[in-house]
Amino acid sequence: MTGIKENLLIADDDPTIVKILKDRFIAKGFEVLTASNGEEALAFIKRESPAIVILDLQMPRTSGIEVLEEMTRYNLDVTAIVLTAFGTIEVAVEAMKKGAYDFIQKPVDFTHLEIVINKALERIHLKRKSEALQTRLQESEEEISYLRREIGREYDFSHLIGRSKELQDILNMIKKVVDQKSTILIEGESGTGKELLARAIHYNSNRRDKNFVAVNCGAIPSELLESEFFGHVKGSFTNAHKTRKGYFEEAHEGSLFLDEIGELDLELQVKLLRALERDEILKVGAPQPTKIDVRFIAATNKNLSEQVIKGTFRQDLYYRLYVIPLILPPLRDRKEDIPLLIDHFLKRLHSKSEKERYELSDEAMAMFMNYSYPGNVRELENLIERSTLLSNHFLILPEDLPIELKENNGSFLAEALDRTTDKTALKKVSNAARLSAEKQMIIGALKACNYNYTKTARMLKISRSSLYNKLKNCNLPPKKP
User: Fold this and answer.
1) What would the pLDDT profile of 55-73 be if each residue is shown by its tens digit?
2) Residue 365 sits in the same domain as residue 435
3) pLDDT above 90 (res 300)
4) Which of the 8 DSSP states describes residue 422?
5) If you placed Cys at 283, which of 5, 110, 222, 231 could pair as Cys (CB 3.0 to 4.6 Å)?
């Protein structure tokens, strides 16, 4: 036997057979139930759902055949092995038609019966595993569907932060073509959010329930490019131990995003153009092409038109990509979006921690506004995160900012002072410097006095009400952070 404890029902009107079988199968590790007629057997089957029933065909009140018919009628999932002293072919065929698993003639060969039961148990366990696998697959599909919806919400157009005209023009263009299959080329410096925009296009389109496959063309070794993009068949080259899908097949009916497409060599550009024009790919080693349906989105931080002139990018591929061009401006050219982005990043950091939300002082915000952001939005996000880690309180001050912001603003202030000629402007600079100095003194005193305002006022030799006024003027929190 398998060693797995199962319920077994023995239904027979011969008490001697019942006792022999019961003792034998209890010794084998079964939980054994017994019935002396068909009605009793049927009641046990409905109530206890045994894995196996050993069923005598000739029983009083309700026969074994009638029990089989009722099991079929009520869709009872029980494996029946029938016993009979009338071992004709006709009876065996009828029992099997009624749903019996196997047929054994009396007198019972117990060794043969055990073999049949073992095979029946293997079948039962395989069926259970299959059902469990189907359940897990269904749960996985539901989970994948849920995750796709969640990702879709994350990449909703509302998450493309900015009110600048350049960004709004791009969003308006996308909304017009989001469900079209037309190729999109996104141009922009590194860090401007090209992949974020590509994902937003996919998850707001009619392809949102299929795969979004993102590929960095500059990160794949040249000798693997063709296989990675188009796949290969088993045995097509050394170590090709099995057939493998490429990026195009993975993105079938979905979207394929190729970042830094300007890094592709000319040979692969030819094959890429063929795939785009014919909607088909040729796997490495395959005799016939494979049809594909892919929404193609490319991105580059290079000027592809200049690469065409230099001969490093194919002109025909360039025009095939340049159907819907989207140019993401650098952050320095849309500075009105900086406060919105900072607020977005601070909210995101707050949602990931249990801490109070950080805020920027006016002076710190001015320094962020003055920075040139060579790394664009990605750099801004990193600077915000570093600033929260460097700050000892929840109001981020100039001294909490990363060194590159301080150095950049130091040169800016010197240039501003050089340009200042009238007394009014100079007075404003002096007032700003005085306020900044006062703020640093107040923060130092608060820390030294463990944010006891009476002690802080005494240390600064001012009244408590004056301290509160200065806290307000310096845009400092009126309580301990």
Assistant:
1) 998 888 888 899 999 998 8
2) no
3) yes
4) S
5) 231
